Amino acid sequence: MTFDGFSEAALDFYDDLELDNSKSFWEAHSEVYRTEIATPMRELTDELADEFGPAKIFRPYRDVRFAKDKTPYKTHQGAYVPVAPATGYYVQIGAPGVLIGAGFYDASPDRLASIRAAIDHDRHGPELERIIGSLMAADWEIGGSTLKTSPRGFPADHPRIELLRHKTLTVSHHLGFDEVIHSRALVDRIRADWRQTTPLLDWLVRHGD
């Protein structure tokens, strides 16, 4: 099967799920989830696998064991292509439309220390700045969780203190409801966007060990 876009029914499903996040709603609409969301997401990522590798399609169920919010279902469907631990390419569909992303989404203390050491380095740090600058110039949004203060061992006036504060580092493009999400052209759009983020992921792989 080939990917032909996400349908309006996929967006409607998540609009409705945000209003009624219940087992009864899910069971009544599970076929819509399967045919309009899960299957197209697999078709989409399969078409990208030749260049980027196989994707992990996330389960739709939330882990509510330690959460105050006990709603059982995620209000988006995500897929992720790993290139290193908790690092890789990302795409999701939900009520706000389609989002494309990449970056590192979690890091062990040792790995985060390695990344920060590279950011501090006189050559590797400016290289990351140039990569981030190029992505921002191409309208990528820089995100991730950050410290409110300087990480231990780094001065507040460090020239790359904003990067050093990151505990995770992501970039994202929000396609929203652009017509491209309803067509096969979404494959090429994601392919082009993920290619733009490859230098960032390559940098993280090289310096995150």
UniProtKB/TrEMBL annotation:
Domain of life according to the entry: Bacteria
One Pfam family hit: DUF2461
InterPro entries xrefs: CHP02453, UCP028451
PANTHER family in the record: CHROMOSOME 12, WHOLE GENOME SHOTGUN SEQUENCE, DUF2461 DOMAIN-CONTAINING PROTEIN
Protein's name in the database: TIGR02453 family protein
